[in-house]
Design a protein that fits this description.
CATH topology: TIM Barrel
CATH class: Alpha Beta
Largest sheet: 9 strands, parallel
Shape: globular
Order of helices and strands: HEHEEEHEHEHEHEHEEHHHEH
Length: 330
């Protein structure tokens, strides 16, 4: 990619239009987390500064529910408090949009929020001129065996989507009209090449994706994966089931030895045998990072060759690896 030339980000276009601009040219987007409560945005902006040279089509910002934390007390006991460790999704989205003049896609989740709170988020986003969102159920709490919505909240992403649709049609959750509806939200959804951990099977999971499409989802972003063959098979089954929206592959390069076991367990994905064998030869985190970058480069090249020129990246603990991959691929 040429360096040192001025460029203009595409603005105020839905994600589907952004990723279809110059579709023959490989492109990327990436996801960031809001800073931990009490921290500033310096680290976040350093990540964006590192990757902005590759002309990302959009930047996603995650949303986090409240969770229990145990704070040590002077008497040796622990006090259990419920806090949001990463607040500020909407403010961070606005800050990124203003600082970098790039489309932002904050996540809107069921997890931890009532429909009333979600409605106020939609209003805040609309006031800020942010009308691209990613709708998801979100994770269950660490202390829960199964997902439980808060009182007045939603149990499924499809219910959240239906609320967004009502808002788009000019109706509040209490049934009253929105006097000035404003610009409609466009939204994407999540999908899972190796199925959602709670889905009984992959075909059921694809039916859920088809339902999201039928409700109005314009595209889907995958959970991370390391085996392109699994992704291709998933896309083929989804297409056969009537899913026609763009399916965007999402990657996260391995960057530490510990991720050899942590990532498959946390994200419910398999590591291909070749990648596993390569990681087993690593002695240090630097070795693992090198393998992760090499695997990521080949994954990207293979995806592009097979008709998926737009690739999404998860940056947590992997921003520098993503930079190295992008220098080679994009």
């Amino acid at each position: 990619m040429a360096r040192g030339h001025a460029f203009q980000f595409c603005q105020h276009m839905p994600v589907t239009e952004l990723i279809n601009t110059n579709p023959a040219t490989p492109s990327l987007s990436f996801e960031v987390l809001p800073p931990l409560k009490g921290n500033g945005t310096e680290t976040l902006f350093r990540t964006i500064d590192m990757l902005k040279v590759f002309r990302p089509k959009h930047i996603n910002i995650t949303t986090h529910k409240q969770e229990y934390v145990y704070q040590p007390q002077p008497d040796g006991t622990f006090l259990r408090n419920r806090i949001r460790r990463r607040p500020g999704t909407i403010a961070v989205a606005s800050a990124i949009m203003q600082k970098y003049d790039i489309t932002v896609v904050p996540h809107l989740v069921c997890s931890g929020f009532s429909s009333e709170e979600i409605e106020y988020m939609l209003l805040d986003l609309q006031f800020l001129g942010i009308t691209d969102i990613l709708t998801m159920r979100g994770d269950k709490a660490r202390e829960e065996n199964t997902f439980r919505p808060v009182e007045g909240g939603w149990a499924h992403a499809t219910e959240l989507i239906e609320q967004v649709n009502r808002f788009n049609s000019g109706v509040f959750e209490d049934g009253s009209p929105i006097r000035n509806p404003g610009k409609r939200f466009s939204y994407g959804v999540a999908c899972y090449p190796e199925k959602h951990e709670e889905a009984p099977n992959i075909d059921f999971d694809i039916q859920v994706l088809k339902r999201k499409q039928d409700l109005g989802a314009e595209y889907a972003i995958t959970q991370l994966f390391y085996d392109n063959a699994t992704f291709f098979a998933f896309v083929e089954r989804a297409r056969a089931a009537g899913v026609t929206i763009p399916i965007i592959p999402a990657l996260k390069p391995l960057a530490k030895l510990s991720q050899f076991s942590v990532v498959p367990r946390t994200f419910h994905c398999d590591l291909p045998l070749a990648l596993s064998e390569a990681l087993l030869t690593c002695k240090t985190d630097d070795d693992a990072k090198r393998v992760g970058v090499e695997w990521g480069v080949e994954q990207c090249r293979d995806l592009i060759r097979n008709g998926f020129p737009h690739i999404h990246f998860f940056t947590v603990s992997a921003a520098d690896s993503i930079r190295q991959i992008c220098e080679t691929v994009f």
